[in-house]
Design a protein that fits this description.
With 129 residues, the chain is of the alpha+beta class. It has one domain: VSR Endonuclease (Endonuclease, Chain A, 3-Layer(aba) Sandwich). 44% of the residues lie in helices and 19% in strands. It is built from five helices and four strands; from the N terminus they run ααβββαβαα. It has a four-stranded mixed β-sheet with strand order 1-2-3-4, sandwiched between helices. β2 and β3 form a beta hairpin. The longest helix is centred in the last third of the chain and has 16 residues. The N and C termini lie far apart (35 Å).
């Protein structure tokens, strides 16, 4: 779906119920990562969880950086999941949003490493003097 300048891209009404459901039913890995992103804990940047962008919902989004952080569970590795992710990534890329992806396993087994990767990406790729 394409949007013109007059349409609401972020958190449209069409995804409101699904976003609420996802916020109330986060996976264990999402809960773990959210504990380290919420409340401006990562370099003072505000992240939002289960944020709607167009027809899609990203796990975590920092509007100031146009950065989405995705937590990939098993459904992302099915052929249907890969197809959906490719379509969503194409759309997000088209509107200038960068996506970082991590697996459930990475978050559960190496949370500090995941946080370091996100922080390093922000510092080295997004915030340049």
């Amino acid at each position: 779906m394409s949007y013109n300048d007059n349409e609401k891209i972020f958190n449209p009404k069409s995804t409101k119920k699904q976003r609420k459901y996802l916020r109330n039913n986060m996976t264990k890995a999402e809960v773990i990562l959210w504990s380290r992103l919420k409340g401006r804990k990562l370099q003072e940047y505000k992240f939002r969880r289960q944020h709607g962008i167009g027809d899609y919902i990203v796990d975590f989004y920092c509007p100031e950086l146009n950065l989405a952080v995705e937590v990939d569970g098993e459904t992302h590795y099915t052929s249907q999941g890969k197809q959906h992710d490719a379509k969503r990534e194409s759309y997000l890329d088209e509107i200038g949003i960068i996506i970082l992806r991590f697996t459930n396993r990475q978050i559960k087994q190496n949370l500090d490493g995941v946080i370091d990767q996100i922080a390093s990406f922000i510092t080295n790729e997004l915030v340049q003097d």
